[in-house]
Amino acid sequence: MDLRVTLVQTQLHWQDAAANRSMFSDKLAAAAPQTDLIVLPEMFTTGFSMAAGMLAEKAGGPTLGWMQQEAQRHRAVITGSVIVTEQGQYYNRLYWVRPDGSYATYDKRHLFRMAKEHHTYTAGKERLLVELNGWNICPLVCYDLRFPVWSRNAGNGYDVLLYVANWPQARSLAWRTLLQARAIENLAYVLGVNRIGTDGNNHPYSGDSAVVHPKGHHLLETSQAEGIHTLTLSRQELTSFREAFPAHRDADAFNLS
Q: Fold for domain 3-250?
């Protein structure tokens, strides 16, 4: 079965969760995508903020409830990351929310030290692998993109590698290049969803959301424009390529400490 994916590239209201939830509801309702998976940016309710003490929601808070409603409404999984507090710690937490209301979580492992994210948030320790319509998917967050060991596709354990991000325009070349590299080295489709506009710290974002084929060419390459993009990933193309070019069989074995 093929997989329909929808990438939402947009500006964000700075540190205003209610406004962002309302905005995304309106955009998704207007687009009415026929899809299996809806992908939102990193910290999609606030922008990339270190004001966790003011902005964090408790685990199971209003944004999770909103995602459950949207997943049910569109009959699709919805994913993106938000600021969460749990047991006295703050997390940049990705929610993977299914139409039946069940969900999984991934806490961002690689915290962006240049913005002192590691001084505010606690790093995750476990990678998440989820299944959707027979596809295995590995969702990660922004700065994780720079660390190929963490995303390594041992034994073709996943079919789609997904990054939600607030990746500034100043490093857009790295974003575009690394998305292609992750697809090529992991023999998998790669999805990257980034925001546009300028945040409350005056950092501009160029978007550049993309879908990259396992061979490295773009199936979708956006610019700085707002947009909701839906396209279909081919299971047959993935299977045929892996059979014809089984580079994963020659990968080095090692354990991540």
A: Nitrilase/N-carbamoyl-D-aminoacid amidohydrolase (3.60.110)
